[in-house]
Write a structure and sequence with these properties.
heterotrimer, A alpha/beta, B alpha/beta, C alpha/beta, B: alpha/beta, Rossmann fold, 8-stranded mixed sheet, globular, C: alpha/beta, Alpha-Beta Plaits, 3 domains, 5-stranded parallel sheet, 9 strands
Chain lengths: 389, 293, 387
């Protein structure tokens, strides 16, 4: 029986891990995901979740412990954010290169200095080359659903998955979340992992290797990651059949005839829908694409959604200094050669927890469309809002 | 010692260790004591490199080559995973060099020890970062040459006392051991295997390449380290009961130092200081041991 | 590439990698001369026979001893044991009781069978069944000659038969000489048969006659009888006697090994005179027993690896098999590999093992890197690094 609960995004994540019957939870606190590990500790303590809980002494060790557990064939889960994710960087590579089906929740929070606990996606965006699949949640229900889909995909393609949720917008906001029935989840993601470390079939995992083998192994990993998009879509459809909801790699809103399309990853899509409606009220054919999946990059799906639009205004929550907006950069690369051309703008509206306000976005997007972008412009298709005077 | 033959053939030949490698000897002895139901976690270091070139390996037990700092953390997760999968009676052996234990690995080791994770952590100590070409670690003894402590700037700090650090974590079992005294080492490994919780073994493993001695002298150098009390053999139970292991007759420190080229530039002052440190540590150890003679 | 596993996990071992190509030197087991062996007139291979005893192979042990000493039960009772004076164990606690072990072996090991087939060599006679004569007859018999042992007394042994039973019992002497006679396939003309021969005359078609003048005192009746017979030998034979090797004309009971060695030397001279030893390496080895090289010295023994044992048994003979084996266990086996296993324990490359028969060390030439730890750690310098 499914049940409904009023849950924050972090509580939803913990409940998803519970439903997924994770085996090993290495836990380290960091705002704003701490409630995830706290809730799991209580669930385990009460006997609701039968799992090993390891109070590791750093996030680097948290991921290392996940790797150890996954090597034994156990289902591993952890959560982190910003500084913790950055600290894990070395071992994130290891998990993906090692083809480990770990699922980790990351609360998108700004990186220091200066210290800022609020929403920013530079943390996970900076990890986009590690080989992890990356998904950005729309709302708390999406947090719950995508974790379950993530285990299915991770265990099928042998790649780790990072489920991202916006700091405070999702981690600390309550929503009505439907919790699927445990038995149905068991049927959706049965445990059938094989241990890489097996005393019956002893082997060494990940020792020194030469150039040709390395290249071939990377070739395999890349195309397996590319193929994971199709796995994710299948899993999402199976989830829809079982539970009535899906986690598509991208969502569109009024893009069919759009001239200007707003693009964002994460929960700001709600605000952007309002911005689109406002732009339409003012007579502009606006639309929105919510990019849920960043890795693998769903290039064809985006191209279809974009269609004949003239421009994309990417609402950025992360910046790569010296290059520009990260999601915008991804889109420029992905949309290169798009028929009819595409003018891609980066609108830095959500760094360090700056609120994304629909009117502001609508105004900026309309100004861009009219050829009169406001604010300081360095001739680089980057608009910055919320700057100090 | 007579008529001792190693019965397990878990380690095979053809690996890439230097001729005379003490760490290679160490693994044979360790696996003799632990047997085939052992899962090994090995970080970057000599062992992870000479174990073999993918897709081949010289060990017939499961081994995981992990990132440098993560040995104890990966071992913790591995043990938890094995227990969840019904393989809790298998041993998890963390097998790290001195760099991966004393320096970059110490945080994860401290965390695992504090949680009393059920792993055996063996530090095979060749007293420097040997795999990368002989650089100083906090396990390098004072007066030793390494490429980052050249003759003009020999290592001056005293060697970090890892067993005391582990004892301070009150782990159920911590001990020193040496490749020159295999019966003692294997007995300590067997004891470790029988205890639940974190077991730490600091194992002295000679390195002809880094210490600048003939490859045939690896065992003798290790024996002299014990005889000269530079590396005494002892155990600590629960962080509070210290017990000396059977020790051979005492020999002068100079006999040990003379054998190795890395101490050639030491000079009499540093050597005298070295001897004083050895004496001081030995006295301190005797005071702690309940069976010291 | 479809064959590549997703997870970077190995599928084979490293045996294919011939690290043996790295080395400059390789360990080799060498049979060095032990000091006890060097001190012994017969060159008794004590470490080897003791190792055989410890491996419960009394047959091999006795076989080794009989190759150089046909009367171990006699030397094991009478010899002045210079071997024990040179035994390197005395630096640790006390010399090994080698003589007692030799006696134990002779008295308890299974009796060996003679080689099959008949003697095909020329006919020879040995006058005088003292230890020298017995030794000569034995080695000539092993060399294939048809040897007749001739003595006026009923029992072989010469002056040994005159010793008090406490020193050498007639039973023990009888057992030892019977074994010698059996192995060498000797014909005997003793006691009453001697009288008949003396009457008939010594022209029996022998190609070679050896006269052991030390078998009996020259002025004794048997000594005289033998001398008379020798004087009547026809021309045309090769004749050798003990005068040059034993100018004093007699051996003390404690010198029985010297007498046996002299007999062996006469046998060697005889084979050479007959032109036989040139024909066969086997024959040469049978007689010549090379003791190559310097004996092992105390400095070459790793005393630090042995523990001093308590006082050994008193008396001349072991009270039990256990006691004998306990004493045998004290042997340092100088210069001789006794498969203690220490080298195998310390080989970093798993390149030392025991051969399938369990009798010798073998080196994995494909993988041994020549580090030299094994030779350096050998407690008894039985292993050396060679090109």
């Amino acid at each position: 029986m499914s049940t409904n609960k009023l849950l924050t995004g972090t509580e939803a994540a913990a409940h998803a891990a519970l439903l997924a019957r994770v085996d090993v939870v290495p836990a380290y606190p960091i705002t704003p995901q701490t409630v995830i590990v706290e809730t799991l500790a209580e669930m385990i303590g009460r006997g609701e979740l039968d799992a090993a809980y390891i109070n590791v002494e750093s996030e680097h060790s948290a991921m290392a412990s996940c790797i150890g557990a996954a090597a034994a064939g156990a289902r591993a889960f952890t959560a982190t954010s910003s500084q913790g994710l950055a600290l894990m960087h070395e071992v994130l590579h290891y998990a993906a290169n090692g083809r480990m089906p770990i699922v980790m929740v990351n609360a998108n929070r700004a990186l220091a200095p200066p210290w800022n606990l609020y929403c920013d996606q530079s943390d996970s965006l900076a990890q986009r080359d590690t080989g992890w699949l990356q998904y950005y949640c729309a709302d708390c229900q999406d947090v719950m659903d995508s974790i379950l889909v993530a285990y299915k995909v991770a265990e099928e393609v042998s790649l780790p998955v990072m489920i991202n949720l916006d700091a405070f917008y999702l981690t600390h906001t309550s929503e009505a979340v439907e919790l699927p029935d445990q038995e149905a989840v068991d049927a959706f993601i049965p445990k059938q992992l094989k241990a890489a470390l097996d005393t019956e079939h002893p082997a060494t995992y990940g020792n020194v290797c030469g150039p040709e083998l390395y290249t071939s192994i990377r070739y395999n990993r890349h195309y397996d990651a590319v193929g994971a998009l199709e796995s994710w879509q299948r899993a999402s459809q199976a989830y829809a059949q079982a539970f009535g909801r899906s986690c598509p790699p991208l969502q569109t809103y009024k893009t069919e005839d759009a001239e200007t399309i707003l693009v964002v990853a994460g929960s700001a899509s709600g605000a952007l829908r309002l911005a689109v409606d406002q732009m339409r009220e003012q007579g502009h054919a606006a639309g929105m694409v919510r990019l849920a999946m960043l890795r693998p990059f769903p290039g064809e799906m985006i191209a279809r959604a974009v269609g004949g639009a003239k421009r994309l205004v990417v609402v950025e929550r992360g910046v790569s200094s010296g290059m520009g907006g990260i999601v915008g950069q991804e889109l420029r690369a992905g949309m290169f050669g798009h028929p009819g051309g595409l003018d891609i703008w980066s609108l830095f509206a959500g760094l360090g927890g700056k609120d994304i306000v629909p009117e502001e976005i609508a105004d900026e997007a309309l100004a861009i469309a009219a050829g009169k972008p406001s604010g300081p412009e360095h001739g680089d298709h980057c608009i910055w809002t919320g700057l100090l005077p | 010692m007579t008529n001792t033959a190693l019965k397990q053939d878990i380690m095979g030949p053809g690996h890439l260790a230097c001729a005379g490698c003490g760490a290679a000897i160490a693994m044979r002895h360790a696996l003799e004591a632990l047997g085939p139901k052992t899962n090994i976690v090995v970080p970057a270091g000599c062992w992870s490199t000479f174990i073999g070139v993918y897709p081949n390996s010289c060990l017939r037990v499961p081994v995981m080559s992990v990132a440098f700092a993560t040995t104890a953390a990966t071992a913790s997760g591995l043990k938890a995973g094995l227990e969840r999968m019904g393989r809790g009676e298998e041993t998890v052996l963390a097998w790290a060099g001195d760099g991966g234990t004393f320096d970059i690995g110490i945080q994860a080791l401290s965390g695992a020890a504090e949680r009393n994770e059920d792993i055996i952590f063996v530090c095979y100590d060749n007293e420097a970062y040997m795999n990368t070409g002989i650089q100083r670690s906090s396990a390098t003894p004072p007066g030793a040459w390494t490429t980052t402590t050249p003759e003009s700037a020999l290592k001056s700090q005293r060697k970090k006392n890892m067993v005391a650090i582990m004892a301070a974590h009150a782990v159920p079992y911590a001990a020193t051991a040496s490749i020159a005294y295999p019966e003692d080492f294997m007995a300590k490994m067997a004891k470790a295997k029988s205890i639940r919780g974190t077991k730490f073994i600091h194992l002295f493993a000679s390195c002809p390449t880094g210490w600048r001695h003939g490859s045939e002298l690896s065992v003798e150098v290790a024996a002299r380290a014990v005889k000269s009390r530079v590396f005494p053999l002892y155990e600590v139970m629960d962080g509070e009961k210290w017990r000396m292991s059977p020790m051979p007759a005492k020999e002068p420190v100079s006999d040990y130092l003379r054998m190795q080229g890395r101490f050639k530039a030491m000079g009499p002052e540093i050597e005298a200081e070295f001897q004083r440190n050895v004496d001081r540590s030995w006295q301190s150890l005797i005071r702690k041991c309940d069976n010291a003679v | 590439m479809a064959a590549l596993p997703k997870v970077p996990i190995t599928s084979g071992d490293m045996v294919y990698n011939r690290t043996g190509l790295w080395r400059y030197l390789m360990p080799a087991v060498q049979e060095r001369t032990a000091p006890c062996q060097a001190a012994c007139a017969l060159g008794m291979p004590s470490p080897s026979f003791i190792n055989d005893l410890l491996r419960n192979d009394g047959v091999q042990a006795l076989g080794r001893v009989l190759a150089v000493n046909p009367l171990p039960g006699v030397t094991g009772r009478l010899c002045y044991h210079p071997c024990q004076a040179k035994c390197l164990r005395k630096e640790l606690d006390q010399s090994l009781k080698i003589q007692m072990l030799e006696r134990h072996l002779a008295d308890t090991a299974p009796e060996p069978a003679a080689a099959p087939g008949n003697q095909t060599g020329p006919a020879a006679a040995v006058l005088g069944a003292g230890p020298l004569g017995l030794g000569a007859a034995y080695f000539l018999g092993l060399a294939g000659l048809e040897v007749t042992l001739i003595d006026p007394l009923e029992q072989p042994g010469g002056f040994l038969t005159l010793l008090e039973p406490g020193k050498l019992s007639p039973e023990a002497l009888g057992r030892e000489s019977a074994r010698l006679i059996g192995l060498a396939k000797l014909k005997t003309v003793m006691g009453a048969e001697f009288a008949a021969l003396a009457a008939e005359g010594p022209d029996q078609g022998w190609a070679l006659v050896i006269h052991d003048q030390t078998a009996h005192a020259p002025d004794s009746a048997p000594g005289q009888s033998l001398a008379d017979l020798a004087a009547r030998l026809p021309q045309g034979q090769i004749r050798l006697d003990s005068a040059a090797l034993c100018p004093g004309g007699a051996y003390k009971a404690s010198q029985v090994a010297l007498a046996l060695a002299a007999g062996r030397e006469l046998a060697a001279q005889a084979l050479s005179a007959l032109g036989l030893s040139a024909q066969s390496d086997e024959l040469r080895e049978l007689i010549e027993h090379p003791r190559a090289g310097e004996p092992v010295k105390a400095e070459e023994i790793r005393y630090d690896l042995f523990e001093a044992a308590g006082p050994g048994p008193e008396g001349d003979a072991f009270a039990s098999e256990e006691q004998a084996l306990a004493e045998a266990g004290r042997c340092l086996s100088c210069g001789h590999c006794n498969l203690c296993g220490r080298c195998m324990v310390f080989c970093p490359d798993v390149s030392l093992s025991v051969n399938p028969q369990g009798s010798a060390l073998q080196v994995d030439e494909m993988h041994c890197k020549g580090c030299g730890i094994c030779a350096h750690e050998c407690p008894r310098r039985a292993l050396v690094m060679t090109r």
